[in-house]
């Protein structure tokens, strides 16, 4: 009689009528850790109906009251940081300290969103007619931001809590209802996070969380006529969703192949520290991880040596011990990473460390002398393996970066601010960091991907603005 975690609908915890469950495999032990309900399409329909009804009343709830509830949820979330972090350790093998950080950051994000929301949604616009040719001042246009309706949020496994609240909080402050479909790995952490919102006292049906198999409810959710907006973070699935979704606003953050361009005059210790942090934190399973180093040949040997000595100090093992490198999320992910590594080996890349794998645990690996004919030069491993491509000119680095089908973030290291700006302008990516590894945060910064890396811009302010529409009332004077 194993426990199957219930899903959340209409303000209560429910068992699915399917009688089926989905297993969550612990990446470290590779054994079933938890089970969640496999919801049915009929249950999704009910959630959508409840959301629609609840949203109408929520949209009329004063903005300050919506903010108050979000602040309450944020505080409860922080109080529950230990048990939620425990789920993140067991479900996605996130190192213990990072797991706690994710929950605290999420609480802060919810509070900030509440504050930002009351400011930007508290403002409307007044236009007068006589600025346009042929008009007298006899029309006043009042416009304000109103909710879209029901927002569907689909976060990925690597931040099941933080990338859930980055969609939930803006949706709610703006007066929308919210349906969450968490990733399988991370679903229990997401359900626990949902419990915090439940304790805060949001109206019944306004927020819900359905769990289940993508094959059963994935398309059904994303193509559901009751959905008025989709905010998705993940991989290629996002491209498929954007093709199938209806005429609704979409916010997508997909993969990345963030390039790190290193010029000759860079601070090489700073470079090495950022390559290790950017490439290997959470075992490279971040969309903003450094995924290819493009380094001027004249400084490459020195940087590779510095990186090697730092990589040797990384701890490898279970997330419970707060190791730097922990098992990657699934066996198929580990197999995919291994495939990229073996391809590079066959084609002559230099391994700076010995390749080592036990189960889902892959030891950190820097691959030097990678060339463009190797898969790892272009594909996203989402693991602790990092290719180094030596370049003879800045233009060569920019060219490689821009030839990628991804364009999330990138970074450039140089002491020359003029060169830094020139490279930043030339790189076709959503954000370029000067002298630091890519990162999404602070969470109020705009965050966007170009090309196959996504559509729309996130970050707290942009997400709130994306989850509203402009509504005008024109007063016509006689
Ligand atoms: O994995 C994708 C995340 O949006 C990256 O966030 O830069 O805070 O790790 P991060």
From TrEMBL:
Aldehyde dehydrogenase domain mapped to chain residues: 13-472
Primary subcellular site in the record, as a coarse category: cytoplasm
GO cellular component: a single term: cytoplasm
Catalytic activity, EC: 1.2.1.9
Entry-linked CDD domains: ALDH_F11_NP-GAPDH
Catalytic residues, chain numbering: 253
Substrates-to-products reaction catalysed: D-glyceraldehyde 3-phosphate + NADP(+) + H2O = (2R)-3-phosphoglycerate + NADPH + 2 H(+)
The entry's keywords: Cytoplasm, NADP, Oxidoreductase
Record keyword NADP present: yes
Statement: the UniProt record of this protein carries the keyword NADP: yes
Molecular-function GO term, any one: lactaldehyde dehydrogenase (NAD+) activity
Broadest EC class assigned to this enzyme: oxidoreductase
Pfam families: Aldedh
Location within or outside the cell: Cytoplasm
Family to which the UniProt record says this protein belongs: Belongs to the aldehyde dehydrogenase family.
Protein function: Important as a means of generating NADPH for biosynthetic reactions.
Protein's name according to its UniProt entry: NADP-dependent glyceraldehyde-3-phosphate dehydrogenase
Species the sequence originates in: Carex littledalei
Taxonomic lineage from the root: Eukaryota, Viridiplantae, Streptophyta, Embryophyta, Tracheophyta
